[in-house]
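JOB MANIFEST
job_type = single_chain_structure
chain_count = 1
residues = 142
[input]
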Amino acid sequence: MKRFLLEIDGGAWGNPGEAGAGVLIVYPDGQEEEHQVYLGRATNNVAEYAALLAGLLRLLELGAEEVEIVTDSQLLANQLNGSYRVRAPHLKPLFARAQAYLARFARTTVRHIPREANRRADRLATQAILERCSTLPSPLAP
């Protein structure tokens, strides 16, 4: 099985504010891809979901079969693992899309990590905001 690691982070300067998403993909052989996605104005939680969706779409393009997702967003991890309900109306469609993408993999795991352990994805999200540019399409675009 092709098992990939997906490290993600989203951030907003202001909430809502200028937002970006960072995506780090680690291939089974250790090769890495870094991506940043500029989102414009969004909330922090929307940016976290955008990072997830952008990363999952890229992994589907790569033909990944298994994925381990790591995030410093406790809310996102717990919603994806079923510990928290998605109550915010604006997050429900993003959660539904995430669930649809996750169902296309043979196996997925989602793990919450401390913010300090997620510095690379955080750097990519910040870079997206500072440079206002993307290396992947925004999953929030209509």
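[summary]
The first helix runs from residue 44 to 62.
The helical segments are 44-62, 74-80, 92-102, 119-131.
exit_status = 0
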